Amino acid sequence: MESASGSGLQAESASPDRRKRGHGFESRQERLAYAILLPVLGTVFVVVTYPLLFAVGQSLRATRGGDFVGLQNYASALENPLLYDALGATGIYAGIVLPTEILAGLGLALLVHRTVRSPRARLALYVFATIPIVIPPVAVGVIARLIYAPGYGVLNHLLMLAGVVQAEIPWLSRRDTAMLAVSSVDVWQWTPFVYLVFFAGLQTVPRESIDAAQVDGATGWTMFSRIELPYLRPLFLMVLFWRIADVLRVFDHIFILTGGGPGSTTQLLSVYLYRVAFKFFDTGEAAALAVMVMLAMSLLYAAATRLLPLERD
Amino acid sequence: MPRRRAGRRWRVVGVPVLGAVALVYAFPLYWLLVTALKGEGELYRATPSLFPHEPTLAAFSSVLVTRRFFVLLENSIIVCGATVLIALAIGFAVTYPITRLKVSRRLRVGVLNWALSLRFLPPVAVVVPYFAIVRGLGLYDRPEALVLIYTIFNLPFSIWMLKGFLAEIPPEVEEAAFVDGASRWVAFTRVLLPLAAPGILASGVIIFSFAWSEFLFALILTASPQAQTFPVGVQGLVTQFEIIWNDMAAAGAIAIAVPLGLMVLARRYVLAGLTFGVIRGQ
To answer: Alpha-carbon distance B273 to B277, whole Å?
Structure first.
């Protein structure tokens, strides 16, 4: 906003020739803006929206034959007990992953904020923390496989070396440990993101507030809850929205690590949808699920735009 | 002084905790690399050794040459490169008007929010219609289909990052060019683009990394080395009946090395882009 309006005014005052045209210049700019935006956004809009409408169409037709069947696909999708297993698994996964990542990320951010003073060390930590975010989840799945797999998996050997366990634990084929293994990958890959957000947030707390609080004798918990937490609050929301959206799209590392098993223990919603569409080849039911997921996501998005402190200009 | 004492207490906790965290991150990567450097004979010992006794690049050559994964590498680079170019071009077409031209606030906010909404588009939900549409267009098992889809999914990052970088360039620099009689296009290409170059590089790196990591669409929309990307190849090594550990690790290491190298290049601007400007880069 600032730069753009500045641009108009500055240009006018800079050139007397343009100033004469005054208002005309601004509307010419707006016309140019629309001339660039409309074709581009129009094309993107069609390319994005058409598949969504296509999915609605698919969800209303029979998988075999393509007859119009109304809401029958929705009914059979909702009647399938596997859907509720998938929702349950997604809930458990989110219940493990979100609190762990937020608490660990916040804890680490506070720890580094309090103990690491040298700017170079901070920059190094910053760079390291960005790395897990950009490496392929498939490769992280490979690493996890090298750690948890029976036989070559190194975790069992380390545990036996330390005398913690006597026999191999089949991490990926036991119901309880499989979910933990899959969640641990998520925590490993995404805690650094949460850390980065909170660490950057802590840097925005004004020095004066901290000094003032220290003069008043605030330390430790009081300092955090009264002075720093208010600055971090909007970031909690952002992290929560981002991570919920991500949990709903988690697919790659589960596909690599357990494939949704044992049974359907780690078959999260996305893995389930994939199986309905590409293993059971039930396009109609998969499309119905897809439409419902999209509706849920638009609700999440609506909440996000209302509550997030996004830069609006 | 209470402050000094509190600081020391943090340090007593901090050093061991940070050490443990470093171990949790370094060891898995170390284990991946070590496994990739092992020869076949070393894989089947009763207890896997924690370091390679005779380090060898055999697994890398086995993956890239014998299994012909260099073809997949090439596909990935072409698809990701094309995605970066198109996503950035569209990103500029969208962000230039809303940052450098005088437009209404409603238009600007509307465009940015719409771009954000794409971030909430769940891939697994659109994969069902995409599969049918791509087949209908005859683009199944072709890189073009992936480029199109990766472009759409990276537009939010492209738009929000470029918007951030363009907004930081003061309008005066362009106006100086206008005064000298430059056209808008010349001012854009000769003045604005060079100034935005570091930001463009950073955005390009992030988009490349995300496209490089993408797996679900590549898995579903490709079927042969004609269009398969590297992560699909990696996955093929994992789900086999008998896993060749060193080959799988070598493929994983290559998959990580590419974005890792690029990220070191663009480290300064990454965070601002990933968080849609909620957090500024440092």
So the answer is: 6
- The closest of A273, A304, A268, A270 to A95, measured between CA atoms, is A268
Mean pLDDT computed over A31-43: 90
Q: Which residues, including other chains, have CB under 8 Å from residue A210's CB and lie 6 or more apart?
A: A223, A227
**Whole-structure pTM value:** 0.88
Shortest Cα–Cα distance, A4 to chain B (Å): 5
How many Cβ atoms from other residues are within 10 Å of residue A91's Cβ? 13
The answer to whether the complex's ipTM is over 0.85 is yes
Residue A203 in contact with partner chain B when CB distance is under 8 A: yes
Q: Which residues, 6+ apart, have CB-to-CB distance to B90 below 8 Å?
A: A40, A44, B151, B155, B158, B159
Residues 248-277 of B with CB under 8 A from A: 248-249, 251-253, 255-256, 259-260, 262-264, 267, 270-271, 274-277
Using CB atoms, which residue from B120, B129, B170 is nearest to A301?
Answer: B120
In chain A, domain spans: 2-59, 81-307
pLDDT attached to residue B7: 63
3.40.462.20, 1.10.3720.10, 1.10.10.10, 3.30.565.40: CATH of A81-307: 1.10.3720.10
Give the list of residues 6+ apart from residue A42 with CB closer than 8 angstroms, or none: none
| Bridge partners, A68 (sequence order) | A61
Q: What is the pLDDT along chain B (282 residues), one digit of tens a residue?
A: 445 555 677 778 888 999 999 999 999 999 999 999 998 888 877 778 888 888 889 899 999 999 899 999 999 999 999 999 999 999 999 999 998 888 888 888 888 888 888 888 888 889 999 999 999 999 999 999 999 999 999 999 899 889 888 888 888 888 888 888 888 899 998 889 988 888 888 889 989 999 999 999 999 999 999 999 999 999 999 876 778 899 999 999 999 999 998 887 777 666 555 655 555 543
**Cα B280 to Cα A109: distance, rounded to the nearest angstrom:** 16
The chain B residue lying nearest A195, using CA atoms, is B271
Q: Tell me whether residues B178 and A252 touch, CB distance under 8 A.
A: no
| CA closest to B205 among chain A residues | A134
Whole-angstrom Cα distance, residue A69 to residue A160?
58
The alpha-carbon radius of gyration of chain A (Å, integer) is 26
B136 contacts A283 by C-beta, under 8 angstroms: no
The angle subtended at Cα A193 by Cα A205 and Cα A312, nearest 5°, is 60
Longest dimension (CA), chain B: 77
Does the beta carbon of A46 lie under 8 angstroms from any beta carbon of chain B?
no
A168 SS3 class: coil
The structure tokens listed for A223 are 């300092």
The answer, for A299 touching chain B at a CB cutoff of 8 Å, is no
What whole-number distance in Å separates Cα of residue B59 and Cα of residue B255? Answer: 14
8 Å CB contact between B282 and A197? no
Hey, what are A32's tokens? 């140019």
Q: Please name the residues in contact with B276: beta carbons below 8 A apart, sequence gap of 6 or more.
A: A310, B116, B119, B156, B160
CATH number of B58-274: 1.10.3720.10
Query: Which residues from chain A sit within 8 angstroms of residue B32, using beta carbons?
Result: 139, 142-143, 146
Instruction: Say which residue the tokens 């904020």 belong to.
Output: A113
Asked if residues B201 and B265 have their Cβ atoms less than 8 Å apart, the reply is: yes
